[in-house]
Amino acid sequence: QGRMWAYTVGFTILPHVGGFLGWFINRKEIPVWYEKLKKPSWCPSRKIFPFAWTVLYTGMGYASYLIWNDLGGCSSKAVVPLGLYGAQLALNWAWPPLFFGARNLKMALIDILCLDGLAMGTVCSWYRINTVATLLLVPYLGWLAMATCLTIRIWKDNPEQKPAKSE
């Protein structure tokens, strides 16, 4: 029982690790660069993002624990469902460095579009394994839909600055 508690906590905390690192590394770019970007009127307040991601990452992490547990750990049955989850989590963690760090809106857009596909694949692969785990990802899919639309709008409304040509 004590070991299962550690697995539950570990799986639940894991998504927060990359999320925190992404925020920590890029935190100075947010007030400087992000605030100056043209954003749609429906863009959420900056204050909402930490709360939203805390809730979403906690739900995702616990859901991944449920899947891992139901499939008997890292068994051959877990390769696809947890592989899809891990791949989408990696793309989730890659988005802030692309968007804020590299300021590469096009790559951030490509990343989030791939992330959307992997997140939906994760949900589809989890559906027959554990309904609760699947439902825990529904708010994440909703947030990703909004984030994807926001990324598209920011990319379209903020054309890439071409470096000045030197004579």
From TrEMBL:
Write down the InterPro entries for this protein, in alphabetical order: TspO/MBR-related_sf, TspO_MBR
Q: Which Pfam families match?
A: TspO_MBR
As for subcellular location, the record says: Membrane
* Bilayer topology annotation: Multi-pass membrane protein
Q: Kindly list the residue ranges recorded as spanning the membrane.
A: 6-26, 47-68, 80-101, 108-129, 135-155
Which CDD domains does the record match to this protein?
Answer: TSPO_MBR (cd15904)
Keywords on record: Membrane, Transmembrane, Transmembrane helix
Return the similarity comment. Answer: Belongs to the TspO/BZRP family.
Protein name in the entry: TSPO protein
Q: What is the lineage of its organism?
A: Eukaryota, Metazoa, Chordata, Craniata, Vertebrata
